[in-house]
Amino acid sequence: MKRPAMNGPARNPREQVVYLAAAWCLSYPDEELVGRVPLIRTALSEFPATLPDFAPVLDLLEATPPLELQAQYVREFDLGRRHALHLSYWTDGDTRRRGEVLASFKAAYRGSGVLVDLDGELPDYLPMVLEFAARVDGRAGRELLQRYRASLEMLRLGLLRDTLPHATVLAAVCATLPGKSPQDEQEVMRMAGCGPPTESVGLDPYDPRLLPVRKG
User: pTM for the complete prediction?
Assistant: First the structure.
């Protein structure tokens, strides 16, 4: 992210560390990311209670051969929708409304004076939103995370169901937001408090995603 102006990072140092560590742990595991693992551990050690949530992913990054690590990531996060890292996928899927929603993410970035290099990614990509909250504008970033809390929880439950270590990273992010995390998808649906979209394209039969969340 290119930052010509800053409205302040995450509202407290612990949140800043959690959001940035989560952004990196959920990103594609290239050589640069693997090289950051000691830095991530050092930062998290300043807040010892946070380290157990990240340790499984950090251990995986350090212990797995690079090609295997990258293949696992692509399989789990890129090739299917069960663990979609795009927040509006869980609320709007492939509906026409999604374009408007994605524009609202871009507007949030612009409103904070940040020039975002999307590099082919959509603006609702979770690692991008987390880095925005950690390094640029804690208030606006946290508002985006809260607005899409239901998406975060659905992703967390999916990762937990498939026993992926990233589930506890999502749990750490959700723990920074008000209220307890739902226990299952039905509770997340009630949290979102809304019905299904009126138009969808190509949704898989098993897809448990939510449906447009409340505005505001």
Answer: 0.83
